[in-house]
């Protein structure tokens, strides 16, 4: 059986269109105020936060029939959703604030923001304020998902909540140059190693040395790391992880 979808309940900022076909004088648009109420003709403040549109209509009918009308019929719909904001940032076509109109998955909210840019990286984060079960304090938790799931729709079925911040990472690059088949810049994948980066560049060229340098800039300082591919293959030297903006230089062999 499929998961039951809970109906939308109104909150502060939402705008309700309430209409009585017999009484135009009480029909109109009403904003849910910060205290969760609307100011309605004849009735004054009416608490509505946490109610569905159908329940709001039933409540107003009941209150009106108590003192003002006989057998009044009211219809309520949500004209503008503003109580459940979600912020989408990073490498999407249209970053900004979006409002949930009901249950929505991570892939759906990214699609609503125009989808991923070509400059999008390999991960999408959902940053969420949650209550720690031990301390009772509100803490921010970060959930990370592969960006390609946004395209395929395989987003681990995570449902986005009001207040979530969705962050699409920027594509990270490394550079492979020297004696490789296809020198150039390449997208950096999570946990990419030196051997994998060289393989991505088409492997070693005919005159390549086994000596390889990684030029890395950290905190304004440049570091040169040297590795021997032969030793890495034999397990005598670690296969290092590549970082963003690393420059990998495969030296030419001297005869």
Topology summary:
Elements (H helix, E strand, L loop, with lengths): L14 E5 L8 E4 L5 E4 L3 E4 L5 H15 L7 E6 L4 E6 L5 E4 L6 H7 L7 E12 L6 E9 L1 H5 L12 E6 L2 E6 L5 E4 L6 H7 L7 E11 L2 E8 H5 L13 E6 L3
Parallel strand pairs: 6-10, 11-15
Antiparallel strand pairs: 1-2, 1-5, 3-4, 6-7, 8-9, 8-10, 11-12, 13-14, 13-15
Q: Overview of this structure, please?
A:
By secondary structure, this protein is of the alpha+beta class. It has helices spanning 53-67, 106-112, 148-152, 194-200, 229-233; strands spanning 15-19, 28-31, 37-40, 44-47, 75-80, 85-90, 96-99, 120-131, 138-146, 165-170, 173-178, 184-187, 208-218, 221-228, 247-252. It has a five-stranded mixed β-sheet. Strands 12-11-15-13-14 form a five-stranded mixed β-sheet. The longest helix is centred in the first third of the chain and has 15 residues, at 53-67.
Whole-angstrom Rg? 29 Å
From the 3D coordinates, which CATH architecture of the largest domain would you assign? Roll
**How far apart are the termini?**
70 Å
Helix content: 10-25%
Which structural class best describes the helix and strand composition?
alpha+beta
Strand order of the largest sheet: 7-6-10-8-9
- The low-confidence runs, each spanning 5 or more residues with pLDDT under 50, are none
Taken in chain order, the helices and strands follow as: EEEEHEEEHEEHEEEHEEHE
Identify the CATH homologous superfamily of the largest domain: Outer membrane lipoprotein wza domain like
């Amino acid at each position: 059986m499929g998961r039951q979808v809970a109906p939308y309940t109104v909150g502060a900022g939402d705008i309700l269109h309430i209409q009585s076909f017999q009484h135009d004088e009480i029909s109109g648009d009403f904003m849910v105020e910060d205290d969760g109420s609307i100011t309605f003709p004849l009735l004054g403040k009416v608490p509505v936060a946490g109610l569905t549109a159908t329940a709001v209509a039933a409540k107003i009918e009941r209150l009106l029939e108590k003192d003002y009308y006989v057998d009044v019929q009211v219809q309520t719909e949500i004209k503008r959703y503003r109580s459940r904001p979600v912020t989408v940032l990073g490498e999407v076509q249209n970053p900004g604030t979006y409002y949930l109109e009901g249950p929505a998955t991570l892939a759906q909210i990214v699609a609503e923001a125009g989808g991923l840019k070509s400059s999008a990286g390999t991960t999408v984060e959902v940053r969420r304020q949650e209550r720690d079960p031990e301390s009772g304090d509100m803490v921010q938790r970060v959930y990370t998902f592969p960006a390609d799931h946004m395209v395929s729709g395989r987003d681990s079925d995570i449902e986005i909540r009001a207040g979530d911040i969705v962050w699409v990472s920027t594509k990270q690059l490394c550079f492979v140059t020297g004696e490789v088949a296809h020198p150039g810049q390449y997208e950096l994948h999570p946990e990419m190693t030196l051997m994998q980066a060289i393989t991505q560049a088409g492997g070693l060229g005919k005159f390549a040395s086994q000596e390889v340098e990684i030029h890395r800039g950290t905190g304004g300082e440049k570091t040169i790391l040297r590795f021997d591919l032969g030793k890495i293959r034999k397990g005598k030297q670690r296969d290092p992880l590549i970082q963003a903006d690393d420059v990998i230089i495969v030296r030419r062999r001297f005869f």
